[in-house]
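Exercise 7b. Backbone tokens:
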């Protein structure tokens, strides 16, 4: 990377948001506010249901609760700025806040990717080693990889932020997005960013592609095992794997579109960003709940207990 004697004079960035149309902004605000509330309700319902039901104290639901927590955290990083930007345009974000937003966003995204891999590994053990499942996937075995997921996400994010902080920013300061993200911010640097972009694509893009391929291979092997062997609860196994494949594709395909290519502006960039930052965290609990009879039954029992407690208080 070329060395330049620039001074970072940018103190804030201007976020252009999703649209400049006031009428469309009001409509989108209502839609995304409902999505945001639904994200919180859906994911917290899963977290509370898993915690309060002993029948769900298994590795699969432990990982599902962790994914729900990460989805809530993800929505906290990007959705508030999206909503505020739809109420007032243009909206600004300070340089430090922008850096922190990217740090937490990629920290959480990196952890989510590892959790997806752990969920695939959990299904692999459940299908191939059903009699030893609880021995292999015990609580201590799960806690270590989950902690590793958080550590891996932090490392992934710290590497990217470390590279960005070495770049000079002296203007312009306009981001054509609703949140700060690496591809758009790098393009505003007052220096040649070819090497940094290459490193970022290698860090984020290759990571996402490799993990996606690993997950696809893993689920292909699992589905072949389910198809070839007659097993008890075969329909449940198919449903669980199908659910996880849907969630994986919903998250990875937009991520690959954004990060596994040169950092150039494409018309579909904002739509892809909305899908995996706003829509995916909302749909994940819905997909898992609608396809999982155990979770639906546990939620019904939880609601019944809450209603019963409310009647007693009245």
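Sequence design result:
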């Amino acid at each position: 990377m070329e060395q330049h004697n620039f001074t970072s004079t940018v103190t804030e960035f201007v976020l252009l948001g999703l649209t400049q149309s006031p009428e469309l902004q009001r409509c989108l605000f209502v839609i995304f506010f409902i999505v945001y509330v639904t994200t919180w309700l859906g994911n917290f319902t899963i977290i509370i249901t898993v915690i309060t039901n002993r029948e769900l104290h298994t590795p699969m639901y432990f990982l599902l609760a962790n994914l729900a927590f990460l989805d809530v955290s993800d929505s906290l990083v990007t959705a508030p700025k999206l909503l505020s930007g739809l109420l007032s345009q243009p909206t600004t974000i300070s340089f430090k806040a922008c850096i922190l937003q990217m740090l937490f966003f990629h920290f959480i995204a990196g952890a989510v990717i590892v959790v997806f891999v752990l969920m695939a590994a959990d299904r692999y053990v459940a299908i191939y080693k059903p009699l030893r499942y609880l021995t292999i996937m015990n609580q201590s075995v799960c806690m270590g990889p989950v902690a590793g997921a958080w550590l891996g996400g932090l490392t992934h994010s710290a590497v990217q932020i470390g590279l960005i902080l070495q770049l000079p920013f002296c203007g312009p300061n306009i981001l054509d997005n609703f949140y700060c993200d690496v591809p758009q911010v790098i393009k505003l640097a007052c220096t040649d960013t070819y090497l940094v972009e290459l490193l970022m694509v290698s860090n984020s893009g290759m990571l996402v592609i490799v993990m996606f391929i690993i997950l696809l291979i893993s689920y292909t092997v699992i589905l072949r095992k389910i198809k070839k062997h007659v097993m008890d609860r075969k329909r449940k196994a198919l449903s669980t794997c199908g659910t996880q494949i849907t969630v994986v594709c919903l998250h990875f395909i937009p991520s690959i579109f954004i990060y596994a290519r040169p950092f150039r502006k494409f018309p579909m960039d904002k739509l892809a960003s909305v899908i995996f930052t706003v829509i995916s965290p909302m749909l994940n609990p819905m997909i898992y709940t609608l396809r999982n009879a155990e979770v639906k039954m546990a939620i019904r029992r939880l609601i019944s207990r809450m209603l019963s407690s409310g009647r007693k208080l009245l």
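Instructor comment: Residues 194-228 form the longest helix (35 residues). The CA atoms of residues 179 and 206 lie 23 Å apart.
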